Amino acid sequence: MLKQQNSPTREIINLDGLYHFKVDTDRRGLTEQWQRSRLETTLEMAVPASYNDVFANKAIRDHVGWVWYQQDIHVPRGWKDERIHIRLESATHEGRVFVNDALVAEHSGGYTPFSADITDHVEPGSTFRLSIAVNNELTQETIPPGTINVTAAGRREQRYLHDFYNYAGIHRSIWLYSTPAMRVEDITVVTGFEGPTGSVDYRVDVAGSTGREQILVKVLDALGEEVAAGEGAEGRLSIPNVNLWKPGQGYLYDLEVAVHENGQLVDVYRQPFGVRTVEIRGAQFLINSEPFYFTGFGMHEDHVTIGKGHSSALMVNDFQLLEWVGANSFRTSHYPYSEEVMDFADRHGIVVIDETAAVGMNAAFAGFFGEGGKKTYAEDFVNDATAASHRRAIQELVARDKNHPSVVLWSIANEPDISEAGARDYFLPLAALTRELDPTRPVGLVSELRGTPEANTVSDLFDVLMLNRYYGWYTQTGDLESAELVLEEELLKWQEKYAKPIIITEYGADTMSGLHSLYDQPWSEEYQAAFLDMYHRVFDRVDAVVGEHVWNFADFQTSKGIIRVDGNKKGAFTRDRRPKAAAHLLRRRWTGESGK
Ligand code: GCB
Question: Which residues line ligand 1 (CB under 6 A)?
Fold first, then answer.
């Protein structure tokens, strides 16, 4: 799916800002068709942002169900002969879009974009009423899954087994845009190189084809100079003296695709891309045929007040801190991040492990909620409907992110149960689907402690082993000596059994910024630093370890619970992005001499 773009044949209007906002407390909005008139409300809500922390209102923060956004939108008079589209970069977790009275789009999956052609519903030169209903409910049919309970006090309550707050709303931008009737609908770019010559295999899909169009393509370098050209919907182009996209050096080209008819330009679209290769060889992860070692974090889209809302200023600051600390990569734990983040990573040479929102699919975690003995792959938890949503989540992620050079690895789930009967049948088709959609990138799944080298039934299905480990925190608490022994022992078993690259996708300790101790005191800054230091010693002794992602980049909000104190505090930075002692330690390792 292509993003909206300004070009000589297309125009875009950003629809961010304040919307009339109404919480559908009694679940009446859809049946009463609130889109048909002005919302009865005095509340206003900003897009993009999570609504939860914006109002000083517990009922809004804890609301389970639909909320409505509404605004009048003007359509430019100059768009008379154009197709007119609306695109939401996300609506978390389910969105319905109405133009005046009509439903024009519905989408489930809170972190991927969707769009609709609304030409037949609007009049250029006039105004329409845009209403967007957004539902935050998580069920067995959603990714991530969840359940809705009624509390003893009669309140509907959202439960879920993942460890981040269920922020909701319109987290990313909304766009109105025009295209010609015949237009570039999709572009796929796959790159390679031989010596100094880059290769670009491209495919263009055209919508509204008249059957008489001519497709012309050009490769433009970073200065806008043409370096290759061709014709046709598919083909291979060569770039002499190619500038590779490399970690730390995000060199980008544009593939300019022009659709002509009768010698006239009909549509033109520029798709940025980088020339690079990714390959697994034995236990090595190669980018451009060179071994790559991942340093960085599992992150979250999470900030004070705006929750999971995108902010360009805060995004730039996060990337600045990644650079300061010497991180070369991150994982989009535990859902696809905003398209602006992916574009920024491309431009700045930051390597990304791109993850679906399949998180919390593990009955073992239900124990925390007093629901021991539950099964994961069962009618009342991860079932066929969950699998269907999971397939869609993978399809939408690959469709959105396939052309990003920064993305080097797909992570199709975080910490599902991988040893229970049912796990292999569940993941085998999903791994195959991901490879079919994108044969060029390795595929993995992130696993937790219980999926040991002996017990798991799925690790052979994947190209990379991504492991989350918390020895010294959840087990061997405060005992780093023992933790060091069991960690090393386990990693050596993985290395021996699978001979695949291992990325430690999570390791970390909750830490109260400002708490100090002379002893191995969990929650102190010293303990977090000693914990990370110990893991690093072990990583440096295990050859198959090709990456270390600390959990987490920054403290983040979670649902309430007795093991969280106003959120998860495993950040190297606080929630307002101040460095803990651990951040300085990581900086020394990742920018200095020590380390692999
Ligand atoms: C994990 C999860 C992550 C949690 C983390 C923790 O294994 O993948 O979402 O936040 O542990 O801090 O417990």
Answer: 163, 334, 414-415, 448, 468, 506, 551, 568, 570
